[in-house]
Amino acid sequence: MAMESGSWKESYKGMSADNIKGLVLALSSSVFIGASFIVKKKGLKKAGASGIRAGSGGYTYLYEPLWWVGMITMIVGEIANFAAYAFAPAILVTPLGALSIIISAALAHIILREKLHIFGILGCVLCVVGSTTIVLHAPQEREIESVKEVWDLATEPAFLFYAALVIAAVFILIFHFIPDYGQTHIMVYIGVCSLVGSLSVMSVKALGIALKLTLSGTNQLIYPQTWVFAFVVITCVLTQMNYLNKALDTFNTAVVSPIYYVMFTSLTILASVIMFKDWDRQSPTQIVTEMCGFMTILSGTFLLHKTKDMADGSPSLPVRLSKHTEEDGFGTEGIPLRRQDSSRAP
């Protein structure tokens, strides 16, 4: 019995202290962000009851304390997510973002009385199973002692080639495809967000490592590389926000969210594998297991979004606006949706 206990401990010995810190921060981020959607939604509904709804162009929600509580909660979640990248590899942190969807769906079911279909519950379970699989088989975080080491990784030929492809694809999408297809093809806006997002996460991770080392006593702010990464973060995040808002304003949130999650997470993992060589420190079995966990999360995410507007026994199209959306003009994330009927009127 003692030997069995010893072998069990050995099998889980690999999870480093930094990975555990990153895991806790990523989970905290999902809790805060998932809860913020619900708090903002309640604030929006409360503000809409006494003034012009945001979906109709009103801004009364800016005077609603509950909405600001939701915004502050989301900011705290994003800060925790930023910090998580400083401790754990992107292949561990990024997929855990799906947990915020579960928390949001569960709280919407409890607090907002929005029906969660049985298949939605199954989707939540799949996300949890997939996340657990990735957590148990995540690679060790790379030991980095200076932001210059991150710069060396970012300037290796393989990652420079990836970054060049991403930038070229983004410019082609923005200047060639968006003018003609942006309003009709959902993949155009989401493509820009996801491609730029993969670079922003790598820069966020580099900046997070620089700040972590600085706070631990090794000042990294004296190196120009730190400020270059900061500039890239600001540029990429602003670009992401711009085109994600365009996607959300043009298409139903229920369609945008899962597609964006899949593309963004997939490209981020690819970028991390190229830049930080996460898989070089893992066996083929661990890599395949992680990919199975990721596919399980994707399945759960799609199932949850596919059935979010279904009542028991009465399926509906996934792009149809839910009852709550039709009433107040907002999706579960509290983001105004485009009125498709009025936009297509002659």
Q: What does this entry show, briefly?
A:
Helix content is 72%, strand content 0%. It is mainly alpha-helical. Among the domains are: 97 residues; 141 residues, no CATH class.
Task: Provide an overview of this structure.
The chain is mainly alpha-helical. Among the domains are: 97 residues; 141 residues, no CATH class. It is 72% helix and 0% strand. The longest helix has 33 residues. It is globular. InterPro entries: EmrE-like, Mg_trans_NIPA. One of its GO terms (biological process) is magnesium ion transport. Keywords: Cell membrane, Endosome, Ion transport, Magnesium, Membrane, Transmembrane, Transmembrane helix, Transport. Its main location: membrane.
- Uncertain segments are 1-12, 311-346
Biggest β-sheet, characterized?
A: none
Instruction: Please write the string of helix (H) and strand (E) elements.
Output: HHHHHHHHHHHHHH
Shape: globular
The gyration radius over C-alpha positions equals 21 Å
What is the average per-residue confidence, as pLDDT, rounded to a whole number? 80
Total strands? 0
Fraction of helical residues = over 70%
Distance between the ends = 76 Å
DSSP strand content:
under 5%
| Secondary-structure content class | mainly alpha
Provide a count of the helices: 14
Keywords: Cell membrane, Endosome, Ion transport, Magnesium, Membrane, Transmembrane, Transmembrane helix, Transport
Main location: membrane
Subcellular location: Cell membrane; Early endosome
Protein name: Probable magnesium transporter
